[in-house]
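Section handout, structural biology tutorial.
Before the tutorial, make sure you can parse a SMILES string by hand: atoms, branches in parentheses, ring closures as digits. In the record below the ligand is S-adenosylmethionine, and the chain has 373 residues. In the tutorial you will relate the predicted C-alpha cells back to the input. Do not try to memorize them.
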Amino acid sequence: MIQMWDDSFAVQSPPIRAALDAGNGIRAFELMHSELDKVWREVERVLGDGCIACVNIGDATRTICGRFRLYSNHSRIIQAFVRLGFDVLPAVVWKKTTNAPNKFMGSGMLPAGAYVTLEHEYILVFRKGGKRSFRSEDEKRLRNSSAFFWEERNHWFSDMWDLKGVRQKLINPGLRDRSAAFPFEIPYRLINMYSVYGDTVLDPFVGTGTTIAAAAAAGRSSIGVEIDSALLRVIADIVGQAVQVGNERITSRLRDHLSFVADYQKSKGDLKHVNDYYGFPVMTKQEREIVFHALDTIERSPDPSSFCTRYSGLDIGMGEGSCEPSRLHSGDATGIQRRPAKGGNVIGSSRPEGKGVYPAGLEKLNASGWTEG
Ligand SMILES: C[S@@+](CC[C@H](N)C(=O)[O-])C[C@H]1O[C@@H](n2cnc3c(N)ncnc32)[C@H](O)[C@@H]1O
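Predicted structure of the complex:
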C-alpha cells in the first residue's frame, strides 16, 4: 500500500484501481496484498526446505477520503507467510536515512492529532521447513568457506541496521529514486547471512537488479523476475557495476577484519585461530575456511537476459556443476523461469563460472598485511 506502486498494482488488477478511485483504502490494501500473495506462493513453491526468504517492506501512512491511517504492510506479509507454512524468524529494522529527521505529520504542536513519522523499513525473515542440513563433504565445505567473520556476525545479526556511511544505491543517473532501489549492502549482507556458495538467489521483484549485482559479488548464482521489461537496460547497467562494487566490498571486508585483529591484539591479546587460506588470525574455528571470490568479469551471455560472472584465483569448487540449485537444495529456479509471477518476465539472471579469490591489489594486502603491519 505504498503510493508510488498504485499504478503498477492498478494495471495488474483493475479492481485495485476501482477501490482506490472509490476511496476504499482498506479494500485496495487487501487487493494489493492478494496480488503479492500470488508471488509468495511461487516463492514457497520454488524454495528448497530450510531455505530463507527475506522481504524488505515498509509500512505506509495515507489519507484516503479524509481518513489518515497506517497501512501495515509488514504485518499483512507476515500473515501471508505464516499461512504458507513458513516459520517467522526475528526481523531486522532498517533505519532509513531521512533528509528531514524532525518532520512530523498531523496537528503540529497540538495534541492529539500528531503522528510519529515512519523512518524505518523491515526486513522480514522466514524459513521454509526446518533447519537446512549440510550433510555431504561438498556441502560442508561450501558452507564453511561461505562463513563470515565473528565481528561481522555481531554487527550483521543485530536487529537494527543503520546503513549510514555504507555505500548506498548503485548508480544509474537516469533513474533517480523512481525505482525504490535498496542499497547494495542490504542484499549483499542478507545473501552472505542466509546462503552459501553454489546457491541460487531469487529476487521476484528485481527492479534495477541490485540483488543480482549483490549475488554476483557474493559468488552466488541468481534469478531475477521483473514485470517491467523497460528495466532490462537499467539492470544491465547496474549488474555491470558488480565487478567494481563487489571487489571493493570484499576488499573492505578483509581490511576491516585486519583492523579488528589489530585492535583486538592491542587490547586483549592473541586470537586463537588462523584462517587456512589468508593466514591471518580469526576469532573462531568456524572462520578458518572463509575465502572470498574476486570477480573478474561480468558479461551478458548470448541469451540477452542472462549474465555470466567469472571469478579469478583459486579453485575451491566453484567450477561448472557446483552451482546447481538442486544439488544444494536451493530454489528450483528453472521452475520460476518457466512460470514467473503473473505477467512477469525473467529478465535477469546471473551464474558464477570458474574459480575465485582475491580482488586485484589484495595480494599486496596479504603480503604486507597484519603480520608486517
Ligand atoms: C521496490 S521495486 C524493487 C527495487 C529493487 N529492490 C532494486 O534494488 O532495484 C519493486 C519492483 O517489482 C516490480 N513488480 C511489481 N509487481 C511485480 C510482479 N507481479 N512480478 C514481477 N515484478 C513485479 C516493479 O516493476 C518494481 O520494479
